[in-house]
Design goal:
381 residues, alpha/beta, six-stranded parallel beta sheet, globular
Length: 381
C-alpha cells in the first residue's frame, strides 16, 4: 500500500442558513475585528447583506474588490483595504477567485510593496496569524480546502502562485442557501471543476488509500445532484448541498491534480477564460488519454459501480457522457470563442514545462498527448 500524508482539515460546518451564524464562530475564535471580503456580484445577488446583518457585536470592515480569475491587481486592492486596519480575521464570501484573492491579500496585509513583486520573491513577513474563514458561494473550486491558489499575473497573463507562503483555512462554512440562485452555466462549470479535482485525484500517481473513499464519494455526489439542479429544480437544497460537499471533498483529500489542470490553467490564463469552463472542456479528452492505463482498471471498476456505467470500457463511456453533457448544457468549444487551434497550441510548451502537476500524471506526458487534449478543447467532438 502506498505511503501518504493527509493534511489536517479545517473545521467544517455544513447546514442551511449557517452563514448567518458567522458572528458565533468569530466569537469562538475570540475575534476583535474582522474583514469581510466579497465581490460586487455576490452583494448584488443578495448574499452578503444577510450575513452582515446578523453581526451585532464584532466590528468589521468590508472589501468588494474581488473580480474573476484572481488577478494580482485585485489582490493588491484587497490588501490595501486590509493594511493598517488591525483585523484578526478575514472572511472570504464567494467562489474560488474570492477565496484565493482574499487569502493572498491577507498574507500580504503587512506590506505596502507592489503585490506583483511577489511573483519572484518573498516578502519580509506574512500575516499567517490572522484567522481565515471561507464561506463558498459556488460549488466547484474547493479553494476553501487548499492552502493557496493561483493568481493571474496581469503583466504576463500567466496564473501562478505568489511567494507569500501558505495558510490553511481555519473554518469553512458550507451553506447550500448561498448557491440556490447560481446560473446554469456557473452551476455546471463549477461542478466540472469539482469532477476534475476528484477524477485527477483518483487517477494520479499520488492516489492512496483515502483517495478513492473521499474523491469517489465526491464524484458520486456531483453525478447524482447535477441533473437535479440542471434539469429539474435549480433550487433543490438537498442537491445543492451535495454539490457543495462534493466540491469540498474532491479537493479535501489532498491537492492531487495532474494532466487536466496542467492543460486548462495555462489556456484559461492566456485567454482569460473562466476556470470551470476550461475544466468542462478538458475533462473528457483527459479521460480518453487515461483510458488504456492498466493500473487504473480498479479505478474504472469503482467508478462504474458508483455511477452505474454499463460499458466494458468505463473510461471511454465516462468521457462520452461528458462530451454529451457539454453539448447539452451549451459548453462551446474554444473555436466558438474565437480561439484558433494554432493559438491554443501555442500554450503547449508552457504546459510541458509544468513541474508541479504533470509529474502526478499516471503516464508520461508527451507533446502529442497535450496537443490531442488541446485539439479536443478547440474543436469539440
Amino acid at each position: 500500500m502506498q505511503a501518504f500524508t493527509l493534511r489536517p482539515a479545517p473545521t467544517l460546518v455544513f447546514g442551511e442558513g449557517e452563514s448567518r451564524n458567522l458572528e458565533k464562530y468569530l466569537k469562538d475564535f475570540g475575534i476583535k475585528k474582522a474583514a469581510i471580503v466579497h465581490g460586487k456580484g455576490t452583494k448584488a445577488a443578495g448574499l452578503i447583506d444577510p450575513i452582515l446583518d446578523a453581526i451585532k457585536d464584532i466590528p468589521y470592515i468590508t472589501s468588494d474588490a474581488i473580480v474573476p480569475e484572481s488577478p494580482d491587481t485585485a489582490v493588491q486592492a484587497v490588501r490595501d483595504a486590509l493594511y493598517g486596519q488591525g483585523v484578526d480575521a478575514v472572511v472570504a464570501v464567494g467562489g474560488g477567485s474570492c477565496i484565493d484573492t482574499a487569502r493572498a491579500a491577507m498574507l500580504l496585509s503587512r506590506t505596502q510593496e507592489p503585490v506583483s513583486d511577489f511573483f519572484t520573491r518573498f516578502p519580509d513577513s506574512t500575516a499567517d496569524d490572522i484567522k481565515f474563514i471561507c464561506i463558498p458561494t459556488t460549488a466547484g473550486t474547493g479553494a476553501e480546502m487548499s492552502p493557496g491558489g493561483p493568481i493571474t499575473n496581469t503583466a504576463t497573463h500567466v496564473k501562478s502562485g505568489l511567494f507569500c507562503g501558505f495558510k490553511m483555512t481555519d473554518l469553512v462554512i458550507l451553506d447550500p442557501e448561498l448557491t440556490l440562485k447560481l446560473s446554469p452555466f456557473t452551476t455546471y462549470t463549477c461542478a466540472m471543476d469539482a469532477l476534475c479535482h476528484a477524477l485527477e485525484a483518483m487517477t494520479g500517481k499520488m492516489r492512496n488509500a483515502m483517495t478513492d473513499v473521499i474523491a469517489g464519494q465526491a464524484v458520486r455526489y456531483v453525478w447524482e445532484a447535477l441533473p437535479v439542479v440542471m434539469d429539474e429544480n435549480p433550487e433543490d437544497s438537498d442537491a445543492r448541498g451535495k454539490l457543495l460537499l462534493g466540491s469540498n471533498m474532491a479537493i479535501g483529500c489532498q491537492n492531487l491534480r495532474h494532466l487536466g489542470h496542467a492543460v486548462c490553467q495555462p489556456i484559461g490564463g492566456r485567454f482569460q477564460l473562466p476556470h470551470g469552463y476550461t475544466c468542462a472542456l478538458v475533462l473528457p479528452p483527459m479521460l480518453e488519454q487515461l483510458a488504456d492505463i492498466e493500473e487504473l482498471k480498479g479505478v474504472w471498476l469503482l467508478l462504474s459501480a458508483f455511477l452505474g456505467l454499463t460499458s466494458d470500457q468505463p473510461a471511454a463511456e465516462l468521457a462520452a457522457r461528458f462530451y454529451e453533457m457539454n453539448h447539452r448544457y451549451g459548453i462551446a468549444p474554444l473555436k466558438e470563442k474565437g480561439i484558433s487551434l494554432e493559438e491554443a497550441l501555442a500554450c503547449t510548451d508552457q504546459i510541458l514545462a509544468d513541474g508541479r502537476l504533470l509529474p502526478n500524471c499516471p503516464k508520461a506526458v508527451s507533446r502529442e498527448m497535450v496537443e490531442a487534449v488541446i485539439r479536443s478543447m478547440v474543436e469539440g467532438r
